[in-house]
Amino acid sequence: MAKVISFANQKGGVGKSTLCIQQAFYLALQKKKKVLVLDMDGQGNTSSRLAPRRELRMVTTSPSSQDQNRRAVRLRAGRIEVMHCLRCRPHSYAEKRPGSV
Fold first, then answer.
1. What's the rounded Cα separation, in Å, for the pair 9 and 35?
2. pLDDT, tens digit, for every residue of 23-59?
3. Which of 1, 18, 21, 90 has the smallest C-beta neighbourhood within 10 Å, fewest atoms?
């Protein structure tokens, strides 16, 4: 069964990105779990650390950009499209403002 772990705080500089990356690596490498990291921060520090070669592109969440999202969001290992792994449409949750969920 899937579990959701969120790292959130309104204050900047408290280690959210660092903690998220460390937890993702721990779960993937030590516990052999499948991990999907969604970086919803405008600065994109987590994305830039996980894909330093700029393999990730900006992904929009509007329904009209679904095809663009399918091409843009790819996993690094094996180049598998993430969209095929998700059980919901990403924009159905991403349109909500932080704190409104």
1. 21
2. 999 998 899 888 888 888 877 788 778 775 544 444 4
3. 1
Same domain, 40 and 75: no
Q: Are residues 64 and 39 in the same domain?
A: no
Measure the CA–CA gap between 61 and 95, rounded to whole angstroms.
Answer: 7
Q: Are 45 and 64 found together in one domain?
A: no
pTM above 0.90, yes or no: no
Query: Are residue 48 and residue 9 in the same domain, yes or no?
Result: yes
Residue with tokens 């959701």: 4
* CA 83 from centre of chain: 12
Can you point out the beta strands (E) in 1-101?
none
Which position has the token pair 């950009």? 65
The range of the structural domain enclosing residue 17 comes to: 1-52
Cα dist from 39 to 27, 50, 61, whole Å: 17, 10, 13
